[in-house]
Here is the input.
Amino acid sequence: MPPKFDPTQVQTVLVRAVGGEVGATSALAPKLGPLKLPPKKIGEDIAKNTKDWKGIRISVLLTVQNRQATISVVPTSTSLIMRALKEPPRDRKKVKNVVHNGNVSLDEIQEIAKQMRHKSYARHFAGTVKEMLGTCISIGCTVEGEDPREICRKIDNGEIELPEYDVEPEEK
Here is the structure.
């Protein structure tokens, strides 16, 4: 027999969801069922808390204690870059295979890299910026009107100087 459920214990659940939309409760039920949480209500809460990420797939961290879930958005580099592109929200059921051919400034990429620095394994801030440029390649957007690979080469050659930016490692 499994151990008795402790209501004071803090548990976390990481869920991928589309911002501003109520996700399928059938996808949430296997993760939330053991925690005795209603998937429909949690899905509505996720939609309410992710309104400003409308139409973009993001990770949502549910922190559960005493059968109360607090919802926080954990942005990924892809979702931050998609948000920087400022594309209008699309209907996922009707519009398929969207090409994200917008343009992002290098300053925006540096701001995104600062937000993602704590997750990066790069030794220097330039490495984190290059990780974000790699994400731009996979999305298909340009940076400063150029191919992101060209910006990476300029960083490697020293043509583009990036400031050093470090974040203290998080305590676990």
